[in-house]
Design goal:
Blueprint: E1 6-7, H1 13-25, E2 30-32, H2 40-50, E3 58-63, H3 71-82, E4 87-92, H4 101-113, E5 117-123, H5 127-137, E6 143-147, H6 155-163, E7 167-171, H7 182-191, H8 195-205, E8 209-210, H9 217-224, H10 233-240
Parallel strand pairs: 1-2, 2-3, 3-4, 4-5, 5-6, 6-7, 7-8
Helix pairs in contact: 1-2, 2-3, 4-5, 7-8
Amino acid sequence: MPLLGFGTWQAHGESAHRSVVAALEAGYRLIDTATAYGNEDLVGRAIADSGVPREDIFITTKLPAERVGREQRTIDESLRMLGVDHLDLWLIHWPPSRGGLVDIWRKMIEIRDAGLTRTIGVSNYSLDQIDELIAATGEAPAVNQIKWGPRLYDEELVEGHRERGVALEGYSPFKTTRLGDPVLADIADVHSVSPAQVVVRWHIQHGIVVIPKSVTPARIRSNADVFGFELTDDEMSVIDAMGR
């Protein structure tokens, strides 16, 4: 699973199609969508139009928690809309609000074992909820996708996921961050990059998957241009401290 991905929340219409094509052209190879986003068909068309081989793209989509009992129908529809025969990662978008936490996870395991998705995971789950899944089935989610950014940094939460063998994936890296913060601005100046690039690089150096989103080609390219510099240990620690 690539550490850098492209998010598509709130991307609709032709701008969604164009942004995914632009992301793939810029080198992103993880594309993240969800049934609830209502854009799987646009993402699928962009993937087909990009010319990038399917095997080179890591496709993630998500099952709405309220679709307990309709998991098979939902993934079949997602595959049809995306124009693929399997997913790379399928997530439960939110914990079910009316029970069924383990039941929906068991169904996810069954569908994975049938070959419709390579891996399965969750989104917006607590460590206690992940522990409930592990205790009931012996299987931990491959990924937990949660809102994440420097101001949300929690070393214990990072370590808790690591101890359980669950990859941490962060969404809304810029919405959770004040990009004008002097800490980020000063570090960005040192490396001649933007504060947004610093935030993306910070995730990557922590080994946390990050999925910035934009429908602006220049920003899409900029957010991916984070492999030409490296944050020092001191810079990482200063950014970590924004979460305290």
